[in-house]
Amino acid sequence: MKERREKILKLENVHKSFGSKHVHRGVNLELNQGETIGLLGGSGTGKSVLLREIIGLEFIDKGKIIFKGQDIQNLNEKELQKIRLEISYSFQSGALFDSVNVFENIAYPLFEHTKMSLNEIRSKVAEILEMVDLKGIEELMPSDLSGGMQKRVGMARAMIMRPEIILYDEPTAGLDPTNTKNVVDIMKKMTCLGYSSIFVTHDIPAALELCQRLIILNDGIVAFNDGPEEFKKSNDPIVLKYKQEVHYAGSEGEK
Amino acid sequence: MINLKSLINFFLIMGEITRLFFQTIAASFTRPFYLSRVFEQINVLGVGSISITIVIGLTMGSVMTLNFGYGLMKFGGTMYVPAVVSLSLAREMAPLFTSLLIAGRIGSGMAAEIGSMNVTQQVDAIRALGTSPVRVLVVPRFWASVISLPLLSAISFIVGIFGGLVVCLHEFDMPTGFYMHKVTYTVQMADYLGGLIKSAIFGGIIAIIGCYKGLKTRDGTRGVGLSTTWVVVTSSITILITNFFISKLFIVFWG
Ligand SMILES: Nc1ncnc2c1ncn2[C@@H]1O[C@H](COP(=O)(O)OP(=O)(O)OP(=O)(O)O)[C@@H](O)[C@H]1O
Ligand SMILES: [Mg+2]
Fold first, then answer.
1. What residue ranges do the domains of chain A occupy?
2. Ligand 1 pocket test: which of A16, A20, A45, A203 has the largest number of ligand atoms within 8 Å of its C-beta?
3. Beta-carbon contacts of residue A146 (< 8 Å; ≥ 6 apart)
4. What does DSSP assign to residue B105?
């Protein structure tokens, strides 16, 4: 793993409302190069919205989102498209293009953004499919895949451009233990390769296993921001309440 | 109920549709181009609509000929039937009815397809992967529709003339030569051209409205259903209103 270096992403006092619903009320967050942080918080606390803001799919009302020294709020759609090659988003639902097969889903960014030949693209797609443990499924349609497989294809598509930051939105939600382990293993590989990532999840054991830092969003702000050991020990009422919400008992989470 | 709010809403939607139109035009003339996607859409939208176009052309031609034929017979004007039928087919009926029918078929299809992509976050995925939904989804459909509609209404005109001929032969004992002579003599280049230009404009209207609503679709499957009906109604009304003004314009300029 790369050692911790400069901050690659920084959120400063981010505010966001939908109508009268104030989702973010001043979120501050930093992501260091090569770091994986776990983003926790009850349902509807705005975790997905936060990730969407980071890649510019959602505009914020106030505050700054700084990627490599550049405030992405001031960018137009065209400049944002470049940022989105460096920060990729693995959707909570997978969001695969359901009218084309797995190969075309994963190859899509390569066809759009590179001048690779078809053969190069084929071998790249085969390589990344092997990495997510789904070798040889290029010709299948998304509807032929199980939920777990769809998520992994979505992850492969998000990774294929070798972005700097990968945002995972609940990649393990709704998966059985085997699939969960597969997904966590993929993310571990990516962390070892030096990618920075934000991992949104309700799965505390997985977060403890993967992340160098855990963050809890509560009531529109960051209520907890510390290492996994501190999280386990914490007696902060918000942390305790959250642990209770997701039925995390403590000891059983350690593998 | 028409109140201030729905009036403002109407103008907002008109504004957004106009904006999408200009975005589409801008994206059409800057790199990257997706010619293959345009052909793919011509195949889906245009070629797929040929059978229905033939049916509508035949019915229009023969029914109009029947009615005009017996109507004018009372005044001994049967010989004017080819002129009346061919002129109204070329100028109004073929472009208008073909477009209205096609609006039902492809406009709603676009809204349904893009709408489902939107509610399943596939449109977000297109953006998240650093590409533009307007470029990827709207531009190919727009041009496919602008190219296909004139061709389709030409088909429906030709078939309509043929339908008229069959009726004239069997009902009014009119010689083929006389009929064809009347048709070619009456319908001028300007009439053909006017009809083609009209259908191209209607094609653009159908595509932009269909894509606009698709991209605006919310609320899952129900939303998709509502979008398709909205598109059929809105594009039909827009076509009818635009048709009046274009006809007026043509008459002013070409007489
Ligand atoms: N486009 C939108 N329009 C209106 N409200 C929205 C929109 N997107 C999100 N919200 C609201 O913002 C809040 C946060 O949503 P978000 O999806 O980020 O929650 P989450 O933390 O990811 O929850 P979960 O763990 O269930 O995925 C929710 O209350 C949601 O209703
Ligand atoms: Mg979420």
1. 7-253
2. A45
3. A179
4. I
Query: CB–CB of A99/A143 below 8 Å?
Result: no
pLDDT in 10s for each residue of chain B, 255 residues: 568 888 898 899 999 999 999 999 998 888 777 888 899 999 988 888 899 999 999 999 999 999 988 888 888 888 888 888 898 988 888 999 999 998 888 999 999 999 999 999 999 999 999 999 999 999 999 999 999 999 999 999 999 999 988 988 888 888 888 888 888 888 888 888 889 999 999 999 999 999 999 999 988 888 899 999 999 999 999 999 999 999 888 888 876
Kindly list the distances between the CA atom of residue A175 and the CA atoms of A148, A178, B35, in Å, as whole numbers in the listed order: 6, 8, 40
User: What secondary structure letter does DSSP report for A221?
Assistant: E
Q: Best of A18, A60, A218 to mutate for ligand 1, by most ligand atoms within 8 A of CB?
A: A18
How far is residue A54 from each of residues A84, A245, B130, measured CA to CA in Å?
Answer: 9, 27, 13
Contact B130 A157 (CB under 8 A): no
Indicate whether residue A45 lines ligand 1 (CB < 6 A).
Answer: yes
The domain A7-253 is placed in CATH, from the list 3.40.50.1820, 3.30.70.3280, 3.40.50.150, 3.40.50.300, at 3.40.50.300
Contact A84 B117 (CB under 8 A): no
